[in-house]
């Protein structure tokens, strides 16, 4: 979970904690770095999804998703993101079993 400025730090923490509460691995990167730097760094670490939060997302209660490959999936409500991640996790588990 990447915040663009310090103004979104509380919302980023809230999003990361909600994801953890629902059983997903999540961490908030609240460092005072440019968002491009954070995205590039986490892409190198092969993080599957980066959730990016700016003022617009914090005000509307949404999160913008960016994939590891750099594809911007757009803004979604947090509940919808959790459902999507749950479906993907279930599908991955079913294909392994």
Summarize the entry for a quick read.
The chain has 97 residues and is α+β, with helices and mostly antiparallel strands. 49% of the residues lie in helices and 20% in strands.
Question: What does this protein look like?
Answer:
With 97 residues, the protein is α+β, with helices and mostly antiparallel strands. The protein contains 4 helices and 4 strands, in the order E-H-H-E-H-E-E-H. A 4-stranded mixed β-sheet has the order 1-2-3-4, sandwiched between helices. Strand 3 and strand 4 (72-77) form a beta hairpin. The radius of gyration is 13 Å and the shape is globular. The N and C termini lie far apart (30 Å). The model has no long low-confidence stretch (mean pLDDT 93).
Write the layout of secondary structure elements.
Elements: E1 2-3, H1 9-21, H2 35-44, E2 49-53, H3 55-60, E3 62-67, E4 72-77, H4 78-96
Parallel strand pairs: 1-2
Antiparallel strand pairs: 2-3, 3-4
**Strand pairing plus helix content: what structural class?**
alpha+beta
What is the average of the pLDDT values?
93
N-to-C series of helices and strands? EHHEHEEH
Helical residue percent band: 40-55%
Largest sheet descriptor = 4 strands, mixed
With strands numbered from the N-terminus, the spatial order across the biggest sheet is 1-2-3-4
Number of strands: 4
Which range does the strand content fall in?
Answer: 15-25%
Radius of gyration: 13 Å
Distance between the termini: 30 Å
Give the CA-based shape: globular
Tally the helices.
Answer: 4
Low-confidence stretches: none
């Amino acid at each position: 979970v990447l915040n663009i400025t310090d103004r979104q730090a509380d919302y980023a923490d809230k999003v990361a904690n909600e994801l953890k509460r629902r059983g997903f691995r999540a961490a908030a990167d609240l460092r005072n770095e440019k968002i491009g730097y954070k995205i590039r760094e986490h892409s190198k670490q092969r993080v599957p999804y980066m959730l990016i939060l700016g003022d617009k997302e914090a005000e509307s209660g949404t999160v913008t998703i960016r994939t590891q490959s750099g594809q911007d999936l757009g803004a979604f409500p947090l509940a919808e993101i959790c459902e999507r991640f749950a479906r993907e996790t279930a599908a991955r588990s079913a294909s392994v079993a």
